[in-house]
Structures are given as structure tokens and as C-alpha cells.
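Researcher: Good morning. I'm working through a list of sequences from a screen, and I'd like to move beyond sequence-only analysis. For each chain I'm collecting a predicted structure so we can compare shapes side by side. This is the next one on the list. No need for commentary yet; just the structure.
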Amino acid sequence: MHCKSIEDENKYLSQNPLMKIALRKFSQGVINLSLLCKPKNILDIGCGNGFVTKELAKTFPKAKITAVDIEAEKIAYAKKNNNLSNITYQRRNLFRLGFKKNSFDLVICNEVIEHLQNYKKALEIISSLSSEHIIVSVPNEPFFRIATFLRGKFLRSLGNMPGHIHNWSKDEFVKLLGPYGKLIKVFTPVVWTVALIKKRGL
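Model: Good morning. C-alpha cells for this chain:
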């Protein structure tokens, strides 16, 4: 199963000023990298409740955005609370998306692959669906776990959230992405690593 953190909705609605700043920096990081791509057709895999998707839609009002998540309740929330006319939300499994290769000029996948046992297969799928660029983000470890622990969350697992199977540092994550394209830029907003890749041969 691929999914967002179980705290997805709560963290974006948090009134904690530090959390709000961190999430604003994360969202802006994704947007800033997207601006380098000038996308017209975006796929957002693991969109969760649609908070970042909505920011993308506002930034690129002429772009067509397809946003997918495996959890029906998150898609329902996104359609109700974070919908714009250029977004289409769909419930789909990353491993059974059903889209043709090279269907999108930008594929985005935020906070998903750390949940997946077969993350390499997931990255192959993400790469195959993009004709030009890919943006992928994961928690930047060990900083994400430290921050979670200091917030008093998931203390028994030393700050590791349920479902986080993999824990990559920035350098480890950049190395992991090497086979899937040329690294254009990497950004580390607070406790995440966000990377922009250009498909090889372009």
C-alpha cells in the first residue's frame, strides 16, 4: 500500500506555528522546483488530502493536473476542500495506475516511496510516466525523526512514523535517484528532501 502519513490532514491543519512554517517551506519548495519545468500536464501521485495539489493548481492555472491517491477518504476530502477546475482527483494504486508511458510532462510524488517495500519499482513507474521531469520528496533523515520525537510523537519508535519503512539522508536519496534521470536541483526544506530530475536523453 502506498499512502501519506496518517497525520496528513492534521499536520496541514495544525495551528502550531513551527509546523505551519515547515509545511509552507515544503510546499514552496515543490512549487519552486515545478516552476523550473513550466509544466502543462502534471501527475501528482500520492496527493493525500490535496493541499500541495491545490497550490500547484493555483501556480499553474492553465495546466491540467491529475491527482491520485490510494485512500478513498483522502480523495473525498481533496475533492471537497482542495479542488480547483484544473484538478482531476482519482483513487488509484501507484502500482496499477493505468496511464500510458510519457503521458505527463511533470510527475510529482511527495512523501510516498518511504512507505513502499518495492520503492525501486515505484520509481521505475514514476519515471516511465513522465516525458520530461520528475519531482520526488521524502523525509530527510535523521532530521525528520528527530523533529517528530521532539514534538512528542511516536516516542516508542524514536520518532519514526508508522508506515515509514525506509529512512534516507539527503545524500542517500540523491544517489538512489541516479538511475532515473539527471539531477537538476535538490532542496531540503526543514526536514524533507525534494529533488527535481530531468529524464535522460532530453
